[in-house]
Design brief:
Elements: H1 14-18, H2 21-29, E1 31-36, E2 40-41, H3 54-66, E3 72-76, E4 82-86, H4 88-96, E5 101-106, H5 111-122, H6 130-148, H7 158-163, H8 169-176, H9 180-188, H10 194-201, H11 207-213, H12 218-231, H13 237-248, H14 254-261, H15 277-280, H16 292-314
Parallel strand pairs: 2-4, 3-5
Antiparallel strand pairs: 1-5, 3-4
Keywords: Chromosome partition
Region (Disordered): 146-174
Domain ParB-like N-terminal: 33-123
Length: 315
C-alpha cells in the first residue's frame, strides 16, 4: 500500500488572479479621499468659467442633500498641496454649501497629462463659450505637441504612452469633433483683446469676422472698438478681411478703420441720425426716418431767429 503524500498547494489570491499589472498600478495611483478645500489650488490658467447661474444653485442644493456624487480629480503637487484638474464647479458648490472638504480622486499625472485631462473633462459641458474653447484648445494642443516629442517613461501610464506617439491639430480635431482649420480659428481668438473676445462670447460680433480681426495689433483692435461704438456696428466678414489685408500691407491707419466701418452693408438697417436720448426724445415720431437731421437743423434755425428777435426788442 503506497504511502499517502501531503501535497502543499498555494492558491493565488482571487484579486491577484484577475488583476493585471496595469490595474494594480492604477489601483496604487488612483485613490479617492476627502481633501480639505483649503489644500486644493485652482488649475493654473484654467480656461473654463465657473458661472453663478441657476445650474450652480441646483448643484449646491444637490450637494447639501446628497454630498458630492462624482469625485473631483486632483494631483499632488511637490509642495504637498493639491491641484484641481476637474471639478471646479463641484468645488465652488461645496464652498457655497458650507462644506470644508471635497471628495477627490488623486491621480499621478505630469503637467501635460493634467492639462489634457482637464480640457477633456470640461469639453463634456453642454454649453461652452468660444473663449473657453479657444484657450482650452491652445493649452491642449501645446501639451500634446510637447508629449509627442518626449519618449515614454519606463512603466508610464497608458495615457502617457498614447500621447508620446505624436499628435497634431488634425488629431485634436478628430478628438473634439472639429476640423483642423476650425481648431486653428478658435486658437486665433486668443489673440483678441479682452473686450472684443467678450463680444464674441456675447454674440455681439460674429465668429469668422472676429478671427480675421485677431490678426490686427492690440492698438488697431482698440481703434476698431472705438469705430464700432461710434458707428453702432460690428465688422462684417468682408470688412474684417479688408482690414486684415490693409494691415498686412502696412496701410491700416485709424482713418482707414473708421472709413471701412462707415461702409454700408447689404441689408443693413439705416442707422439713427442721433444716439443721444436728450435729442431723440424731442424729435416727433411723425418725422420720417432719415429726415431727423433736417428737422433738428430747422428747429435750431427757428430758435436762433427767436433769440435774434428777442435781442432786437431789448434794444
Amino acid at each position: 500500500m503506497a504511502r499517502s503524500r501531503e501535497t502543499k498547494i498555494e492558491l493565488t489570491a482571487y484579486d491577484d488572479l484577475f488583476q493585471t499589472d496595469e490595474s494594480r498600478e492604477e489601483a496604487k495611483l488612483s485613490k479617492i479621499r476627502d481633501i480639505p478645500i483649503s489644500e486644493i489650488d485652482e488649475f493654473p490658467d484654467h480656461p473654463f468659467k465657473v458661472l453663478m447661474d441657476e445650474d450652480m444653485e441646483q448643484l449646491v442644493e444637490s450637494i447639501k442633500r446628497n454630498g458630492v456624487m462624482t469625485p473631483a480629480t486632483v494631483r499632488l503637487k511637490e509642495d504637498g498641496r493639491y491641484e484641481l484638474i476637474s471639478g471646479h464647479r463641484r468645488k465652488k458648490a461645496c464652498e457655497l454649501a458650507g462644506l470644508e472638504t471635497l471628495k477627490c480622486e488623486v491621480k499621478e499625472l505630469t503637467r501635460d497629462e493634467a492639462i489634457i485631462v482637464m480640457v477633456e473633462s470640461n469639453l463634456q459641458r453642454s454649453v461652452i463659450l468660444p473663449s473657453e474653447k479657444a484657450f482650452a484648445y491652445k493649452m491642449r494642443l501645446e501639451a500634446m505637441k510637447r508629449q509627442a516629442g518626449r519618449p515614454p517613461k519606463e512603466n508610464a501610464s497608458p495615457l502617457a504612452t498614447n500621447l508620446s506617439k505624436g499628435r497634431s491639430d488634425e488629431e485634436l480635431g478628430e478628438l473634439v469633433g472639429e476640423s483642423k482649420d476650425q481648431i486653428r480659428r478658435y486658437i486665433r481668438l486668443t489673440e483678441l483683446v479682452p473686450e472684443i473676445l467678450q463680444m464674441v462670447d456675447e454674440r455681439q460680433i460674429a465668429f469668422r469676422p472676429a478671427v480675421e480681426v485677431s490678426y490686427l495689433t492690440e492698438e488697431q483692435q482698440y481703434t476698431l472698438l472705438e469705430a464700432m461704438e461710434y458707428n453702432d456696428a460690428t465688422p462684417s466678414l468682408a470688412q474684417a478681411i479688408k482690414m486684415k489685408k490693409y494691415n498686412q500691407d502696412g496701410k491700416l491707419t485709424s482713418e482707414v478703420i473708421q472709413s471701412i466701418m462707415e461702409e454700408e452693408k447689404p441689408n443693413q438697417k439705416e442707422k439713427p441720425a442721433f444716439r443721444d436720448e436728450r435729442i431723440t426724445k424731442l424729435i416727433p415720431k411723425t418725422v420720417p426716418r432719415g429726415q431727423e437731421t433736417d428737422f433738428v437743423v430747422k428747429a435750431l434755425e427757428f430758435y436762433n431767429r427767436h433769440l435774434q428777435r428777442n435781442k432786437a426788442h431789448e434794444r
